[in-house]
Amino acid sequence: MKSGTVIMRLAVAGALAFLAGCGGTSEAQTESIIRAEETDNHTATYSIFQKFSAPEYPADGGLAKKLILDAMQKEGLKGIDYKIEFAPGQDYMTKLNLKATAGELPDLFQVDYPTFMRLVNEGKLLPLNDWLAKSPHVSGMIRDDKFDYVTVNGYIYAIPTGNRPEPYNSESRAGFIVRQDWLDRLGLKAPRNLDEMHEVLRAFTYGDPDGNGINDTYGYGAAKDHQFAGIFGAFGIHPDFWHERGGMIKKGYVLPEAKEALAVLQSWYKEGLIDPHFLVTETKRRNENIIRSQYGMFQNAPLEVDPNSSTIAALHKANPGAKLRFFTNVKGPDGKSGFPESSPFGSLRAVSANVKQPEKLFRMLDWMQNENGGFNLIHYGVEGEDYSYEQAANRIVLHSEYAQLYRRGFSNPIRFLNDIDVRWASDEVKQDLVEAARHTISNALWKKVPAELDYADLDEDLWGQYFSKIVTGQYSVDRWDEFVKLYYQQGGDIIEQQANEEWKKMKATAGKK
């Protein structure tokens, strides 16, 4: 034990002994207070692993870290520090799995559902029930039903995404984005159904919408992870979701509606309306193509059209007359429409079972989620310098770009928990977000059953193969029937059986509430 700690213990013990002699403090209380003093004066440095790329973020945490630690000190949160490590995309999961295997899990980290379940079964995650009960600003932002999906044998093992209470702060926010200036040039309107969408995509591809006299545009642009959810939604399904049919649930991609959607996509692809490179296009490349005015329509969130969007800034720099507009509710032949609701498993945060002093970690996290604590400082920087708050309108006005905030150590790199707060968005975008949340395709069962982990290749490999080959015309649309047969032969029957058992239990439990 360090000499300073010994002196502190003796001084505190002496003072408390005096109080005890006067009848003020018992021996047990004395020892408890001593332990609390020791805890406060011993700095706990928490390792945070973020699935994020932030080359601008300073290695020492920058100005933000000093301001954050000072602010916590003033609020009585003593002896707390943090150290952040970043890794993007798949590299993140590779590194996380290596750390788990080596017994070196970070204190707080993002996790996907299969890894989450594996780590729970291996006893490597900290049960969070008690700590969340002591963290009202963390738990208060999260719907109760979200915790159901991360509860195993009565214990909560992860922190789902939270939402501020405003109606536009929804996770379900996908839709179509269109070049409104191209529509105006060609005398067209945003499509309301698939037939109108076909007309618009054809005009964007072959009608020289940018007026440069060159055949250099595609009606629809996509990336391998931003594909055609709205087209499947026009038939009332999402391929990866469970849908109720005849008193049981089935995967969307085995329903006849999937075949209808594939037929539409193949037809559009053969007509040249879809960028033929979408299957090998990364998101970054897709965004570059948007900025280069190669796409007339694509899938994304309304935030992409906000004046603060980096895409808007880059697009206007390249083409000052460009205008993007968000829309949704494109109906199919039966009047159905929608984009998939967001997964409760997105951006889960878990805590290592080996974390030291979890009480301090959760005091820090709760302060960071407290609007009267560190919430705005963490998210937006220094008030009056990086942002201002218009209380009457409940609006955040940004003065610093995200790259500037990152360089100073603020914003997304230090958002240790995921939450939805877009008070900074324009009124038009907020209305778009509310509209997007109204047109969603629901998943009847979010919880993964064991067979889905055992036969994970059915989603990624088998469906991925038939989807890509049918859309691009390498397979006929009728070969979808072959896919369905193989799906059930290769484990889909077991998945469906287990899913229905779980779904019926879930419905029975919900009926008792």
Q: Would you spell out the secondary-structure blueprint of this structure?
A:
Blueprint: H1 3-21, H2 27-41, E1 44-51, H3 62-74, E2 80-87, H4 89-101, E3 108-111, H5 113-121, H6 129-133, H7 136-139, H8 144-148, E4 151-152, E5 155-156, E6 162-163, E7 175-179, H9 180-186, H10 194-206, E8 218-220, H11 229-233, E9 242-245, E10 248-251, H12 256-270, H13 283-291, E11 295-300, H14 310-318, E12 324-327, E13 339-340, E14 348-351, H15 358-368, H16 375-380, E15 387-390, E16 395-398, H17 402-408, E17 419-420, H18 427-438, E18 440-441, H19 450-454, H20 457-471, H21 480-512
Parallel strand pairs: 1-2, 1-3, 6-17, 8-11, 13-18
Antiparallel strand pairs: 3-14, 4-5, 7-11, 7-12, 9-10, 15-16
Explain the overall architecture.
There is one protein chain. This protein has 513 residues and is an alpha/beta fold. 45% of the residues lie in helices and 14% in strands. It contains 21 helices and 18 strands. The chain has helices spanning 3-21, 27-41, 62-74, 89-101, 113-121, 129-133, 136-139, 144-148, 180-186, 194-206, 229-233, 256-270, 283-291, 310-318, 358-368, 375-380, 402-408, 427-438, 450-454, 457-471, 480-512, and strands at 44-51, 80-87, 108-111, 151-152, 155-156, 162-163, 175-179, 218-220, 242-245, 248-251, 295-300, 324-327, 339-340, 348-351, 387-390, 395-398, 419-420, 440-441. The strands form 7 sheets. It has a 4-stranded mixed beta sheet. Strands 8-11-7-12 form a 4-stranded mixed beta sheet. The N and C termini lie far apart (53 Å). The relative contact order is 0.14. Mean pLDDT is 90; it is low at 1-38.
